Every structure is written in structure tokens, then in C-alpha cells.
């Protein structure tokens, strides 16, 4: 073992989950329904269906009405999750056994403010997260808490049109003030919005926007207006957090969508640059505190009239984030000229041209460890702020063997290759990397397809896509591998 190839001292190793995908207990102890609780099991049968991001993630008022009267929770798997609400002590004990230094999780907004607009919070919801944070503290695990992760309160969406309403800023800031005061002694690291750029890809799930309520030719402007409100809210959340928790650190969270030119044709290079900019602009606003010229040019060219005040712009400039976190699973290609031979494939709620040099997962996501190094270098060169990889993982079909074990060597291979590239980014490229949390350390409901069978965890959950099973936990082979990685601070990745 080479000690020289360890990760930096104090590196934050761990795993990441989201309340809407693991907690369950969707209507217990005063929790209100969220956007996640009315998303029906999609069960895509083909790659074409899998790439229908809007169809998988966004729904109409009629679909919501049907969901709210449905008693069939199995048809809405996020209502069940992985039953973390009742099993959090057991799950956190598994994380402690692996040696987690950090656990990224989210607070369900509708567990604290059931409708989003109440004047007073729900004490039972606050008490639940007290218990979770206390359990983490028992093992010395630092929580990294996402304030909003794909679960706006449903009533907030239906009554106010979600983040399109300017009142959304007030409601969110009230929520942030409550949770940062309540957990001031328990949580140091915070993220504002998960994959803040994703509102463009799944407006309902991220922004509480019911697309059918708006004119089709106006909806793109609606999206960017809602995004502006999130930018202002993120800046104010950073301010509130710093005031309520001295020494706290607040980050933004981006979907790192890394695109390569399909060929060296200049039009393909330009197409790749434009696709990258479409994500970078959200980090640019939250890090630099102002709109980049290319985004305001786009608004002008499309005739958008985004309502923003001088005070909005002042707040955004005054309270940028402290660090940049991101998800990275795969890369894709982009083309600006017609390529009849180009095949389109799926990614993290996005699609791109298939790269002929890369293998693909069972769900069509292309596996590209070097792309993680490229992403780290690009982000650090651009922002010069600490980075945090808060999602990286492999969704796969895991099988329990006759002896009760689960051999997921393919997951180990995927994660090990990505971590070696992260090491190179740190030691060869000078990137400042705070930590790494895999998605997700325990099997949970996948996001876009609402499946349990798309498994990511080091810990297997005995449940299927229809909620059948004991929900008992089983350690996979990767559990012991990741435990060793953490014990050696990454040095085991370089053993012969």
C-alpha cells in the first residue's frame, strides 16, 4: 500500500440520499404531500421511454387529483421510499460501520411546513430531524443537508404556481430560518437547491411548475422567472445560514453535464460548448453573484422579460455560496451538424449523443471516469472555490445469490475508477476537493423512473418496484470495499 497516494487529510468520505427517495412516511406526523408523493411509477420499457424526461417527471392537475385520492401507495413508490423514517437508526449504523465522515441528506420541506405557506412549523417534523442528527453525532458523522431536493410542498405548487410566484422567496426563507436556527448546533454544511439547473428538465419536480397551466409559447420564460426566484432565495438562504450558524458553509449544487464534441467539426465543438454553458450559468450566478452576459443575451434575444428588482441583484451579489457541489454520473456528446450515424442515449435526466468509446450502464448512462477528472478541472478553473462531489454512483440490477450475498463487483469497478480520477485531479491538477459522497449508500427509489430495481447502494433493501418485500437490509460486496477505502483514506484504491 502506498501511503503517498492517500487523499488529503480531513477528506470527507460518505454517501448521499434525498428525503423524497428514502424516507417514506409521506403522510405521517403532520407531513404534507410534496411533488414527489404524486409521481406515479413509470416502469419504462424502452430507452425511448426512459429518455422522455418530461413524461417521467412532470404531471398535470388531473394526475395530481387522481394521486391524492389514490390509496395505492405502491403506485407512488416515493411514498414508501426505503422506510428511512422508521429505520434511520439502523441505516446510520451501517454508514458508521463503513466509517462515514459525512452523510449528505435532505430535509423534506413539507415535513416542516406541510403546505409551504404556514406561519408556524410542524414540531413533529422538526423533532424527527433532531433525532436523525443526534444519531449521526453519536457516530461522529457530519451531516451535509440539502434544503430543497425535488420535493416542494404540493399545496405551494397548486395554490401559488410554485417558484413562479414571487411569494416563493418569502416562504422558502421562512423555512430556512427555522431549520438553521433549530439545527445550529448540529449541522455545519448546507446546500440550497439540489441540481438547481434541473428546473429546465423537470419543472414540476424541481420548481413546482405545472406546465399545462401555462401557454406553451410562454413556458420557457416561466421557467427562467422561477429560476430567478430560486437564485434570490439561494442568496438569502446563504445569508440566513451564516447569520444563524456562525462558521457554517453553504454550497450550491449543480448537475455536472459534461459534453464532448461528437467530432472535431467546429460546429460540434460549438454545440458542446453551448450545452455546457446551459448548466454553467447556474453556478455562475450563485458563485459570482450576477447573471453572466451570455444568459442575459439569451433573455434579450428571446424577448424574455424576467422580473427582477435592484434589490434582487444586490442580494445575489452580496451573498454568494462558499463552495460548489455537483453530481456526476456520466458524459455525453453534442453535435452541431447532422450525423445520421449518431445514436442518442440517456443520462441524468438528460440525453446526448452516444460516445462510441464508452460502455453504458443497464439504463443507457455512459460510464466515463476520466470525465469526472475533466469536470473537476473545468469547475475549479472556472470558480476557484472548493468543490464537493456529492453524487456519483452506478444504478444496476443487483441479485441476491443463493447464499444470501450480493456480488456487485461492477459497482466497485465503477466507483474505484472514478475515485482514481478524482485523486489525479487533486494531486496532478491542483483541484481543491472537500469530499465525496456516493449516490446512494443504501438502495432507494431512483428519481426519474421511480424504481427501486435501479439500485445504487452498498446496502441492499429487500423491496421491489411495487413495494413488496421485508425492507430488511443486506450488506453487499461493495459495502466492505468502501469501508476499506475510507479506512485507508483512499490508499487501498492503488493497491496492486
Question: Describe it for me?
Answer:
The N and C termini lie close together (8 Å). α16 links the parallel β11 (387-391) and β12 (433-439). The strands form 4 sheets. An 8-stranded parallel β-barrel has the order 1-2-3-4-5-7-11-12, surrounded by 5 helices. It has a two-stranded parallel sheet with strand order 6-8. Strands 9-10 form a two-stranded antiparallel ribbon. The relative contact order is 0.15. It has a single domain (3-494), classed as TIM Barrel. The chain is α/β, with parallel strands linked by helices and 496 residues long. It has 17 helices and 14 strands. α5 packs parallel to α7 (123-138) and α15 packs parallel to α16. The radius of gyration is 21 Å and the shape is globular. The model has no long low-confidence stretch (mean pLDDT 93). Belongs to the glycosyl hydrolase 1 family. The active site is at residue 391. Keywords: Glycosidase, Hydrolase.
Provide the fold topology.
Layout: E1 12-16, H1 19-22, H2 47-50, H3 53-57, H4 61-69, H5 84-98, E2 102-106, H6 109-112, H7 123-138, E3 142-148, H8 154-160, H9 167-182, E4 189-193, H10 203-207, H11 219-244, E5 249-255, E6 258-261, H12 266-288, H13 293-302, H14 310-318, E7 323-327, E8 331-334, E9 344-346, E10 351-353, H15 369-383, E11 387-391, H16 409-427, E12 433-439, E13 459-461, E14 473-475, H17 477-487
Parallel strand pairs: 1-2, 1-12, 2-3, 3-4, 4-5, 5-7, 6-8, 7-11, 11-12
Antiparallel strand pairs: 9-10, 13-14
Helix pairs in contact: 5-7, 9-11, 11-14, 15-16
Amino acid at each position: 500500500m502506498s501511503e503517498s497516494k492517500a487523499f488529503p487529510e480531513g477528506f470527507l468520505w460518505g454517501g448521499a440520499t434525498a428525503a423524497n427517495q428514502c424516507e417514506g412516511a409521506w403522510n405521517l406526523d403532520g407531513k404534507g404531500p410534496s411533488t414527489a408523493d404524486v409521481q406515479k411509477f413509470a416502469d419504462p420499457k424502452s430507452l425511448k421511454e426512459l429518455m422522455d424526461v418530461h413524461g417521467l417527471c412532470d404531471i398535470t392537475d388531473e394526475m395530481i387529483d387522481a394521486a391524492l385520492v389514490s390509496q395505492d401507495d405502491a403506485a407512488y413508490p416515493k411514498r414508501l421510499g426505503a422506510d428511512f423514517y422508521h429505520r434511520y437508526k439502523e441505516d446510520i449504523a451501517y454508514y458508521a460501520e463503513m466509517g462515514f465522515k459525512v452523510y449528505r441528506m435532505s430535509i423534506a420541506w413539507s415535513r416542516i411546513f406541510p403546505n409551504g405557506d404556514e406561519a408556524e412549523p410542524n414540531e413533529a417534523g422538526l423533532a424527527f430531524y433532531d433525532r436523525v442528527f443526534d444519531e449521526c453525532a453519536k457516530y461522529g458523522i457530519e451531516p451535509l443537508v440539502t434544503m430543497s431536493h425535488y420535493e416542494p410542498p404540493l399545496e405551494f405548487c397548486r395554490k401559488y404556481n410554485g417558484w413562479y410566484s414571487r411569494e416563493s422567496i418569502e416562504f422558502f426563507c421562512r423555512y430556512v430560518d427555522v431549520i438553521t436556527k433549530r439545527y445550529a448546533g448540529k449541522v455545519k454544511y448546507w446546500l440550497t437547491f439540489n441540481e438547481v439547473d434541473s428546473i429546465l428538465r423537470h419543472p414540476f419536480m424541481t420548481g413546482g411548475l405545472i406546465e399545462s397551466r401555462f401557454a406553451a409559447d410562454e413556458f420557457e420564460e416561466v421557467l427562467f422567472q422561477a429560476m430567478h426566484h430560486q437564485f434570490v432565495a439561494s442568496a438569502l438562504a446563504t445569508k440566513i445560514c451564516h447569520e444563524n450558524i456562525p462558521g457554517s458553509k453553504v454550497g450550491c449544487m449543480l448537475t455536472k453535464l459534461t459534453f464532448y464534441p461528437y467530432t472535431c467539426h467546429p460546429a460540434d465543438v460549438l454545440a458542446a460548448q453551448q450545452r455546457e454553458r446551459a448548466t454553467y450559468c447556474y453556478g455562475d450566478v450563485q458563485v459570482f453573484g450576477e447573471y453572466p452576459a451570455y444568459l442575459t443575451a439569451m433573455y434579450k434575444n428571446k424577448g424574455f422579460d424576467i422580473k427582477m428588482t435592484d434589490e434582487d441583484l444586490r442580494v445575489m451579489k452580496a451573498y454568494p455560496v462558499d463552495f460548489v457541489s455537483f453530481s456526476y454520473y456520466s458524459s455525453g456528446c453534442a453535435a452541431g451538424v447532422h450525423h445520421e450515424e449518431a445514436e442518442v442515449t440517456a443520462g441524468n435526466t438528460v440525453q446526448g449523443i452516444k460516445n462510441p468509446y464508452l460502455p453504458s450502464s443497464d439504463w443507457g448512462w455512459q460510464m466515463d471516469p476520466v470525465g469526472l477528472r475533466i469536470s473537476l478541472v473545468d469547475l475549479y478553473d472556472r470558480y476557484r472555490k472548493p468543490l464537493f462531489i456529492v453524487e456519483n454512483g452506478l444504478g444496476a440490477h443487483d441479485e441476491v445469490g443463493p447464499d444470501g450475498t450480493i456480488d456487485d463487483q461492477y459497482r466497485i469497478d465503477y466507483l474505484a475508477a472514478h475515485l482514481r480520477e478524482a485523486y489525479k485531479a487533486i494531486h496532478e491538477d491542483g483541484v481543491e476537493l472537500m469530499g465525496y459522497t456516493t449516490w446512494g449508500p443504501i438502495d432507494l427509489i431512483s428519481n426519474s423512473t421511480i424504481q427501486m430495481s435501479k439500485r445504487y447502494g452498498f446496502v441492499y433493501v429487500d423491496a421491489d418496484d411495487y413495494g413488496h418485500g421485508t425492507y430488511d437490509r443486506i450488506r453487499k460486496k461493495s459495502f466492505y470495499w468502501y469501508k476499506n477505502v475510507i479506512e485507508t483514506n483512499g490508499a487501498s484504491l492503488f493497491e496492486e
